[in-house]
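for the recovery benchmark. tokens below, seq after
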């Protein structure tokens, strides 16, 4: 039978963290997931410690096959860990946007109907969630007529309708162009600031996402390093996984907020303060 390998503890890259007083919404301790036949068992993730606090954005990054989606399924309770423990705050409400959603977008399904497809919600709550993601005007539109960015905003709105304490987003910018990605990441930060929820975000868009993240967890079946974006980008483990160019891209990236983005990802000038 396969044995768990013993890994040394991975110290955080630095001491910067969310305030100690912030409520811990989710904590994974020593989590491992094993899959395979009795004669051929392998660890998808192993010895993972992770925490998300209220008001914190935690970005989970790693190469393909690193176990990111597996870990997210464990975090939201869809999959049980083989070993380790998952602790959730009492009464925790989770909003989840999976990496893939099995919906035939050719069906004549409106956004409003989609919002209550698996559970009934008050019309006021649906409208509020659509407003929070900037797509209230799409309520009567068919899903098949939405752009990639609009569809992702609707998915996020559907996760928000329950007013979650923890929002879990598994690669939420798939099928979205570059401008749309920036708009969605701005939206995610605005949601955190407005609602005060914790956010666990899985992404491969390192130089954009990491720059707007409180804590980065770099995963390659086990936690390679964790800390603030700038510190993680300087660690040998990060450079080994993603290369020096990825670290340099992060180091020079700054998103200057001289414009906003509409639901389709188009730049819209911000209103200027004309006083003085």
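predicted aa per position
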């Amino acid at each position: 039978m396969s044995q768990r390998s013993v890994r040394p503890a991975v110290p955080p890259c630095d001491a910067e963290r969310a305030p100690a007083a912030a409520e811990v919404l989710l904590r994974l301790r020593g989590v491992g997931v094993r899959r395979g036949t009795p004669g051929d068992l392998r660890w998808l993730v192993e010895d993972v410690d992770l925490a998300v606090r209220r008001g914190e954005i935690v970005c989970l990054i790693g190469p393909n096959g690193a176990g990111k989606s597996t870990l997210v399924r464990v975090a939201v309770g869809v999959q049980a860990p083989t070993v380790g423990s998952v602790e959730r705050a009492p009464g925790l409400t989770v909003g989840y946007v999976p990496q893939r959603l099995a919906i035939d977008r050719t069906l004549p399904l409106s956004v409003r109907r989609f919002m209550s497809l698996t559970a009934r919600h008050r019309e006021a709550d649906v409208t509020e969630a659509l407003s929070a993601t900037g797509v209230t005007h799409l309520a009567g539109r068919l899903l098949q007529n939405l752009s990639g960015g609009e569809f992702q905003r609707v998915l996020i709105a559907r996760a928000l309708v329950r007013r979650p304490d923890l929002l879990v987003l598994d690669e939420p910018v798939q099928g979205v162009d570059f401008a749309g990605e920036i708009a969605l990441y701005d939206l995610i930060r605005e949601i955190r600031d407005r609602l005060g929820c914790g956010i666990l975000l899985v992404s491969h868009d390192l130089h954009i996402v990491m720059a707007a993240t409180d804590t980065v967890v770099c995963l390659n079946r086990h936690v390679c390093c964790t800390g603030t974006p700038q510190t993680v980008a300087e660690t040998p483990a990060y450079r080994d996984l993603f290369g020096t160019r990825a670290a340099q891209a992060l180091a020079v990236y700054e998103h200057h907020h001289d414009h906003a983005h509409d639901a389709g990802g188009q730049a819209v000038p911000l209103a200027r303060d004309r006083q003085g």
